[in-house]
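User: Predict the structure for this protein chain, please.
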Amino acid sequence: MKTRQDAWSHEEDVLLAETVLQYIREGKTQLAAFEEVGRQLHRTAAACGFRWNAEVRKRYLDAIEQAKKQRKERKRALEMVKKWQKEANAITLSVPDKNTSAEGSSPFLPAAPLTLDQCISFLQTLRRDAEQLETVRQENERLKRERAEWQARNEQLAQKLSRLEARQMTVQEDYEALIKIMTRARQLASEEGERFSLAHLLLAETGEQNEPMAHS
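Assistant: Here is the predicted structure, written as structure tokens:
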């Protein structure tokens, strides 16, 4: 079986899926992901987009939804960081009172450390990212096993096809031999002016005609 030169391999599909999911999590566009994969695989962005929408996307529906959730969480985290930075800058730029100045405080001191809730939120985000990576890894392993099963099935079908083709050749040869016997029967009937039955002709071909005639 011939393989098209533009056919996608399993590894290329996985690269396309992982790149698109990464871009979704980071809030980037899928078009940018297609362009990135196209540069790596020497394909056009349009070809990558068509492959994603036609074949690959439906295999990663759960992963896509998870990536969108992570994108929202990432966006919220970035907004929180910006808010903290803004508040820290406001505190830094404010003029300290005399008491704090007397104690040696400075407006250029770093902002207050993160709270326990903020640390927990950050760790939870890391855990979700790790779970997502594990999901993608398991999906990759499942697709590898499925590919191996299809390859084995393909080999079985190829062997069956070879046997059927060999059997067809045998039937074709038997058919051609029968046509030759019938043609010879017509020639004998025309030459001797009598009709030969097909059974007599077959017996004559196998050298067994005299035996049944001796008992008649």
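The helical segments are 10-25, 30-41, 45-56, 61-93, 98-102, 116-192, 198-206, 210-214.
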